[in-house]
């Protein structure tokens, strides 16, 4: 969607002036060109977003479903819900792994558990596939408010289990699985790390990009959060307290029955940071300096390190959530280089 100004000539979603001196110039330029003219989607009704989501799609959204080497398959969660997984296959003539079977990277998109689908991370999925010559699978998990918080993680976990058990059906190495996600997708990854460990399902690597790892749904103001970055960046661009409140309204349990069901889940579904973190798979954590989620992501990484988990924590300075989608900017390019390097090492490591 192109940028639009209102009747007074002002962009509907300008950068907060207090952050102008705190962000890289290429981030500012990208934002002003592609995002400032778009409406704040958290001010729209969920009904409008579901009906006309294409009108409000982020500039990085792409539909590659008709491209060569891209195939959609149907998988089922444990409760019988059927969802789509989009498989990005490498060109067997170019891939290091030839005709396969291929190592697998399973991706879980962001969007506050409320927005998102198979187009938001498509460019990143394609880039990983092309750089590493592996199979990338993107999961179209259930969203709130139509579905209770946690069902998205159920779908995602079902996908990981299915690939592990049935990888040969999609020309995949079921014993060479890595997972990753941005924002809410990072939260799902942190949940799955703990579920996989408990199920003795080996993962090579988990990539948690600008992840939420605590449950913000119980906070009523930024200072309720146990991390200073929520106060420091409460008015940041792309993700801020106002937008977080919108997501909370849609993913919080709606009644006592939903609350009881949610509270009965393992703590890793709600706040992975407070779960048992010993024995988790190798982890790469990306945070953004001007992101409310910065400190909790780094706290998760530090706790992993203290417990002997192999982890890399990288803070990308002078950018905000979710900078990695903004392909032309320098920090997004650095991010892609970093995660592909980490994935390549994890895939080739005999110790993983």
TrEMBL record:
Q: Which residues form the Alpha/beta hydrolase fold-3 domain?
A: 106-324
Q: Which GO terms fall under molecular function for this chain's record?
A: hydrolase activity
**Domain of life the protein comes from:** Eukaryota
Task: Quote the Pfam families the UniProt record gives.
Answer: Abhydrolase_3
Coiled-coil residues are none
- Specify the protein name: Alpha/beta hydrolase fold-3 domain-containing protein
Q: Which species?
A: Clonostachys solani
């Amino acid at each position: 969607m192109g940028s639009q100004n209102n009747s007074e000539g002002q962009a509907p979603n300008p950068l907060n002036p207090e952050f102008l001196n705190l962000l890289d110039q290429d981030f500012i330029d990208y934002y002003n060109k592609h995002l400032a003219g778009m409406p704040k989607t958290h001010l729209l009704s969920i009904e409008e977003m579901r009906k006309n989501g294409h009108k409000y799609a982020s500039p990085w959204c792409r539909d590659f479903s008709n491209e060569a080497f891209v195939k959609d398959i149907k998988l089922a969660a444990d409760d019988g819900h059927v969802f789509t997984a989009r498989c990005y296959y490498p060109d067997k003539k170019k891939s290091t792994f030839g005709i396969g079977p291929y190592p697998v990277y399973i991706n879980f998109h962001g969007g506050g558990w409320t927005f998102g689908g198979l187009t938001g991370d498509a460019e990143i999925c394609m880039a990983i596939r092309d750089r590493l010559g592996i199979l990338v699978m993107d999961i179209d998990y259930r969203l709130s408010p139509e579905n209770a918080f946690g069902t998205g993680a159920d779908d995602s976990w079902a996908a990981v289990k299915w690939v592990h058990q049935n990888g040969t059906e999609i020309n995949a190495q079921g014993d060479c699985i890595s997972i990753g996600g941005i924002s809410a997708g990072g939260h799902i990854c942190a949940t799955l790390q703990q579920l996989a460990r408990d199920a003795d399902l080996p993962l090579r690597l988990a990539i948690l990009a600008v992840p939420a790892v605590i449950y913000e749904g119980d906070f009523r103001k930024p200072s309720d959060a146990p991390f200073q970055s929520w106060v420091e960046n409460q008015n940041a661009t792309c993700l801020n307290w106002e937008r977080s409140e919108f997501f909370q309204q849609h993913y919080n349990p709606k009644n006592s029955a939903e609350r009881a069901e949610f509270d009965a889940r393992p703590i890793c579904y709600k706040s992975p940071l407070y779960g048992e973190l010993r024995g988790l798979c190798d982890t790469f954590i990306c945070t953004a300096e001007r992101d409310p989620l910065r400190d909790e992501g780094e706290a998760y990484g530090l706790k992993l390190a203290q417990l002997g988990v192999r982890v890399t924590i990288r803070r990308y300075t002078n950018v905000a959530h979710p900078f990695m989608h903004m392909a032309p900017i320098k920090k997004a390019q650095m991010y892609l280089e970093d995660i592909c390097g980490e994935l390549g090492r994890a895939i080739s490591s005999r110790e993983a």
